[in-house]
Design a protein that fits this description.
CATH class: Alpha Beta
CATH architecture: 3-Layer(aba) Sandwich
CATH superfamily: Vaccinia Virus protein VP39
Mean pLDDT: 93
Number of helices: 10
CATH topology: Rossmann fold
Bound molecules: S-adenosylmethionine
Radius of gyration: 18 Å
Shape: globular
Distance between the termini: 33 Å
Length: about 270
């Protein structure tokens, strides 16, 4: 594990859902609308996690079949329990070596995953390998370099002011390639054609400060992993500084937004 990825943690599905799953559930339907898929297709969800995108595919796309893959047995257990539908099958696996037959899928999608995969080029080549001729390969990642995921950016701005050594952990430093230009180039290099990239933005409104803060203490994901690693007094300092710095609505809620870059291409 690299130094910067040492706090990535993909095991606790309940904690992940409170931290990120609630927002990835919000963005998944918007992504599927953008794809405007036909019905009765064979889908593959790469890095399905606790099942945010898989659930949206089942609810909106009338798939013939859906194969959902993730390396984390903990996340798969949660996804299996939540999605009891005979069209979906779950399999443990890695995006860089998909346990999927070549040319067997019509829609290959991946949500908020590619930046965590060590060899992204290999992952996209694998997604293309399992695609039928004419199939669509599509994915989205947060706009980390543009500060598009504001609740995370606010966390790291404050955390690194208190602990400059944490700078190499921030997602904008770790994932500078999450830009339209680099993501489009990645898809084109994998041999996809007619590649397009679009921003998808959703509101991420926290009811109050606890609603914002508690997910960071649960340890699932890079920023929560870092937060959980802090000593109690350091965590308390971070909490207080954040409480003072976040924007507020008159009712105490915290209005932020999250923007992803969505990319699609044809095989
Ligand atoms: C931010 S979560 C996204 C989960 C889900 N797609 C969603 O939208 O909520 C990142 C996911 O990538 C998975 N992941 C990490 N490395 C991976 C790899 N090499 N291949 C496939 N998935 C990977 C993690 O297990 C985790 O489920």
């Amino acid at each position: 594990m690299s130094q910067s990825s040492r706090h990535d943690a993909w095991q606790a599905g309940d904690s992940y859902d409170i931290y990120m799953g609630r927002w990835s559930r919000g963005i998944a339907p918007r992504f599927l609308d953008w794809l405007s898929p036909q019905r009765q297709l064979d889908w593959l969800d790469v890095g399905c996690g606790t099942g945010a995108l898989s659930a949206a595919i089942l609810a909106r796309c009338d798939p013939k079949s859906l194969l959902s893959i993730d390396p984390s047995e903990g996340f798969l257990t949660k996804a299996r329990a939540a999605l009891q539908d005979n069209r979906v099958h779950f399999r443990q696996g890695d995006a860089q070596d998909l346990p999927v037959e070549a040319a067997s899928r019509d829609r290959i999608v991946s949500a908020l995953v590619l930046n965590f995969v060590p060899d992204r080029g290999k992952a996209l080549a694998e997604m293309k390998r399992v695609a039928r001729p004419g199939a669509t390969v599509a994915f989205y990642v947060w706009d980390y370099p543009g500060g598009g995921i504001a609740f995370m950016r606010a966390f790291w701005t404050t955390a690194t002011a208190l602990d400059p050594a944490a700078s190499d952990l921030t997602e904008d430093r770790r994932f500078p390639f999450c830009t339209p230009r680099d993501l489009t180039a990645l898809a084109e290099k994998a041999g996809l054609s007619s590649v397009t990239c679009e921003a998808i933005e959703i509101p991420t409104v926290f009811a109050d400060f606890d609603d914002y803060w508690v997910p960071f203490t649960l340890g699932a994901g890079p920023a929560p992993g870092y937060c959980a690693s802090l000593a109690e007094d350091a965590r308390q300092r971070l909490k207080e500084r954040l409480r003072d710095s976040l924007p507020r609505n008159p009712d105490g809620s915290i209005p932020l937004t999250a923007r992803a870059w969505a990319v699609r291409g044809r095989c």
